[in-house]
Amino acid sequence: MISRKQRLQFRDFSTLSAEDREMGERNKVNGSVVNIFRVLMNHPKLARSWSRFAGYILSRQTLPAREREILILRIGWLNQAQYEWEQHVRIGKSAGLTDAEIDQITKGPTAGWDRDDAALVQAADDLFENSVVSDETWKTLSERYNTEQIMDAVFTIGQYNLVSWALNSFGVPLDDYLPGSKK
Predict the structure, then answer these.
(1) How far apart are the first and last CA of the chain?
(2) How far is Cα 96 from Cα 161, in angstroms, rounded to an integer?
(3) N or C: where does the chain have the smaller number of CB atoms within 10 Å of the terminal CB?
(4) What stretches of the chain show up as alpha helix (H) in DSSP?
(5) Rg, the chain, Cα only
(6) How many whole angstroms separate alpha carbon 18 and alpha carbon 29?
(7) How far apart, in whole angstroms, are the C-alpha atoms of residue 163 and residue 151?
(8) Beta strands 28-29 and 32-33, pairing class
(9) Is 0.85 topped by the overall pTM?
């Protein structure tokens, strides 16, 4: 992963309206607001709008959590987004991914996956490389997933591609509880 310099400082939450402060403080781990929200709260209106969609993708979509995390980790890896990667390794493990599967994600769709999981990894690669899921990948996905699930897969990859760009561009530092953080 590529280390990046922090470009946007953390927002002083005492300068936020009560409503905005409450929104930002809903995103805590170990009692502290996660760094992505400490940065995003520099633009509360954007953070609020983005959070509605991100919340759907992260917790209310139609794909099972394990498959969602395969997609998120793969696009995070392709974008070399260290913050996203480290956060979602933790989330992915809680969703059932093994250390071996997380390692496979870094190696791509031909790294020993079964056909269905390989298609998920390939979908992220297809979108990253060509901005479209290939016909072959689509066919494989459609044998397992319904229309809503395939749509959620594409939007999950797109959402976390966007998040990767933002994290990398803003230089959001790793939270203290993540491996590789400068505690």
Answers:
(1) 18
(2) 22
(3) C
(4) 18-25, 35-40, 44-55, 65-78, 82-94, 99-107, 115-130, 135-144, 147-170
(5) 17
(6) 20
(7) 18
(8) antiparallel
(9) yes
